[in-house]
Amino acid sequence: MNIGSYKIDGFASLAPMAGAADRAFREICRSFGAAMVTGELASAKGISRMDKKSQLLLQVSPAERPMSVQLFGCEPEVMAQSAQIAMQYEPDFLDINMGCPAPKVTAGGGGSSLMKDPALCGEIVRAVCEVSKVPVTVKIRKGWDENTVTAVEVAGICEKNGAAAIAIHGRTREQMYSGQADWDIIKQVKRTVSIPVIGNGDITTAEKAGRMLEYTGCDMVMVGRGALGNPWIFSEIGALLGHGAVLPPPSIEEKMLLLRRQAALTCEYKGEYTAMREIRKHITWYIKGMRGAAALRGLAGTVKTMDELDLLIKQVLLSQIKGE
Ligand SMILES: Cc1cc2nc3c(=O)[nH]c(=O)nc-3n(C[C@H](O)[C@H](O)[C@H](O)COP(=O)(O)O)c2cc1C
User: Fold this and answer.
1) 20 CB near ligand 1 (under 6 Å)
2) Whole-angstrom distance, CA of residue 140 vs CA of residue 228
3) Ligand 1: distance of its center to the CA of 131 in Å?
4) Catalytic: 100?
5) What's the rounded Cα separation, in Å, for the pair 39 and 59?
6) I want to staple 216 with a disulfide (CB 3.0 to 4.6 A). Which of 48, 187, 256, 300 is the partner?
7) d(Cα 14, Cα 231) in Å, to the nearest integer?
8) Same-domain pairing of 91 and 219
9) How far, in Å, is the centroid of ligand 1 from the Cα of 61?
10) How many domains does the chain have?
11) Which one is catalytic: 29, 100, 218, 267?
């Protein structure tokens, strides 16, 4: 599939996930075969004000490429200004967030709130495309609520104004992350536009990825929560859809090794203090479904150093052997 003139190989990309899919996790997902990754949403206003924290979110490491940097906001001029600043970080793509349901984003008129104003969506895409040196993509939702299902209209307007691809999450803002994603809306968007469409929502197995591609006709799928604690999903999707192979699930030892690798990378990028606080939720994702996971989750919440993580990993491995 091509996004603009950029060729993307693979069937599945990693969804942007603020507070979860950081540089360490994105690099790991790329190493497991994610076709591309998207950064955590960055405030256009913050970037334009030269706010350090917002600008940090624009950084792209070589191991992440191809990577898209995601901007949110609702003022075309501010979005364009932030896009211009983002260019200095040399992303492979710029992505515009029209799907975030968080009140602190929608209250300011950004994220999924834009799904209520298709004309403004068009203005934003045009303004960003005018200054961007890389293809501009847009991530949308089904709509604001069941009475405001605007995905097809918004996708068409985005395409007309220069978007190079559309990612669509098949839920309304009202649904947040609950219920089931509507794959029919993905199918409708795919039928409407001629730029690539990336389908998103509820891909938790390789088999589901295949089903979404087949059912909706979309060009690629995007995996969010299904990749947390489970970057193997990308190699499983590649094996199944590439040559019909079903890979064996990762062993507990493999899971613990990868958790450790992710923690070490996070320490390298953020320092041990911050890294260990942020890795706690990843521990719970890596141990999900294991014997004694509830008790281990309690322990995960207290980990403060790599040494403590190593102890916890030992305990996980022992408890599985002993059958505790
Ligand atoms: C913790 C978390 C953070 C997220 N942050 C973002 C974000 O920064 N930008 C964005 O466009 N979507 C964000 N999303 C939405 C996901 O990209 C994705 O659309 C959604 O999780 C549905 O896909 P899934 O069913 O595969 O998880 C976030 C989702 C989660 C769970």
Assistant:
1) yes
2) 21
3) 26
4) yes
5) 9
6) 187
7) 9
8) yes
9) 21
10) 2
11) 100
